[in-house]
Amino acid sequence: MSEWLRSDVEGNVRISAEVVGEEWMWRPWGALAHTVSTGETAFDALYGQDTWTWFGDHPEAARLFDSLMDEITLADAKAIVAGVDFSAYRTIVDVAGGRGVLLAEILQRHPGARGLLFNVPAVIASARQTVPSGLIDRIEFTSGDFFQAVPAGGDLYIMKNILHDWSDPDATRILTTCRRAMPPRATLLIIERLVGPPNERVAGKVGDVQMMVRTGGRNRSTAELSGLLTATGFQEPVAHPTTTGPDVLFAALAGQAG
């Protein structure tokens, strides 16, 4: 069982159940009509600041949110690591990768690889305490702002559930920053739940509403995500199927052979 979850029950969803009852999670949904009619993010209207600034002022809520991200990622990571071959990558940069749950799963499966976990300072400080002790020497912990810069020189850059938190202009800024840091042969791996045609990919659509009321972001279709990527110097993404979990897409840099 992962060291992140304080439970002996495999598949534990205790944190998810707890978060559902938190005011900061359910109250923005009650203001959905406000967002639809005005375009203003419901959370911002209710709390007078955006989600991330509010978490900075409410550390206990931020801690619970970080635990929720760990729980969600742990549930996805098994399918991702089982279905994706990471063996070609020696240096893996997890951009805003929470407290390192997915990165740790990859490194445990591929002992020849090293990881770099990049996030805001408070999350990195927490990650140093929660990453399995056997992996500490193989992970570099780096803090910063992905709107300004991300660590350079990796072979694989991972963004899991990052772009959907942000509007198209902000997502474009993040991708541009990442593109600037990537060596010519590096690859970007995007992991999100995409929006599909009617009556398909329901989770992606529910998540789209969640982003609309809480962060001002959006879940995107493959075509919408592809448009962001090609506009910021990447090739069309290539989908990689997994048996369960979110959608997995690889994007090489424009001008590089596939």
Tell me what you see in this structure.
This protein has 258 residues and is an alpha/beta fold. The protein has a single domain, classed as Rossmann fold. Helices cover 45% and strands 14% of the residues. The protein contains eleven helices and seven strands. It has helices at 14-20, 23-30, 32-38, 42-47, 51-57, 59-83, 101-109, 121-130, 168-181, 202-214, 222-231, and strands at 91-95, 114-119, 139-143, 156-160, 187-192, 238-240, 247-252. A seven-stranded mixed sheet has the order 3-2-1-4-5-7-6. Strand 2 (114-119), helix 8 and strand 3 form a beta-alpha-beta unit. Helix 6 runs parallel beside helix 7 (101-109). The longest helix has 25 residues, at 59-83. It is globular and about 50 Å long. The model is unreliable at 1-10 (pLDDT under 50).
Salient structural properties:
7 strands; 11 helices; Rossmann fold; alpha/beta; 258 residues
Describe this structure in a few short sentences.
The chain is of the alpha/beta class. The protein has helices at residues 14-20, 23-30, 32-38, 42-47, 51-57, 59-83, 101-109, 121-130, 168-181, 202-214, 222-231; strands at 91-95, 114-119, 139-143, 156-160, 187-192, 238-240, 247-252.
